[in-house]
Alpha/beta hydrolase
Amino acid sequence: MRRTVKLATTAGAFVAAGAVATVLNDRHRTSRRRRRGEDVEFGSVRSTPLSVLAPDGVALHVEVDEADRATPTIVFLHGWVEDSDVWHYQRLALRGRVRTVFVDLRSHGRSGRSYAGNSSLADLADDLETVLDQVVPQGPVVLVGHSMGGMTIMELARTRPDLFGDRVQGVVLVSTSSGKLMRSSPALRYLVPLLRAGTPMLNWGRRFNSYSIIKRWGLGPNAQERHADMANEMILRAPTRVLMDFYPNFVSLDLTAGLRDLGRARTTVIGGTADLLTPIKHARVLADRIPDAKLVVLEDVGHMVPFEAHETVTKAIEDVLEDIES
């Protein structure tokens, strides 16, 4: 009986603390939003959505920004607990100039839910191949992936090497890794105890001062407040189950088998020296193992490179486009 009362009291304390933290977070979030001074509100850039059914029936949310120049098409893939809004700046910069496709990965953003058993990188690569078949049936393609999105591209190169150098003529890998990630990622090691504690503890932890946590582990020391706030807003949209379901992909990550074939496409690898999730040495390994890959190193930039160094990412994409068209 005493144990039951103690557990109930502890649970009640967590609920109360979570409620207070949520109220405080909401107040701070509102204040930070007012200070952003955005020309275009984050999360407002949209186009008519398409629903693409994955091979196992999961409905994938896809948006296409058409342009007078129909080819090549750039396909953007976001990372773990993100959504296609991570490409906010690139989408604005390239809109109307080139055809672009933005995919919410399964269980992320507006896409349908998958579960632990169908949340592997192999599932994501199958999804990407399906999107290419249905949304980009003709013409050359440039694939751009951040973090887990980059891993999805590497997995596709492993399972469908024939696509690279032919259909896929360009690749931009941003803040990502091909393997041995758990050994060198301080942020993932920090997350492990929360994952092991289970969903209730993780839910509480995510509500409690999430902005400071994301700023500390996801961005560089000189990151602008607006970029940390955008990352916080986006990541909090992802349900906690997404953390749980996709985490096993990183435990024994090994995507090296597809790197040589991926190199048949014009490839750029981008990484930040302050990235605690996918440390810069992973970008260097990728650049070494992908034939003729170009490496872009960003000093004091963290994991959220598409926000922190958005102009550099856009320029890298433009350079790849120029190379494959010349």
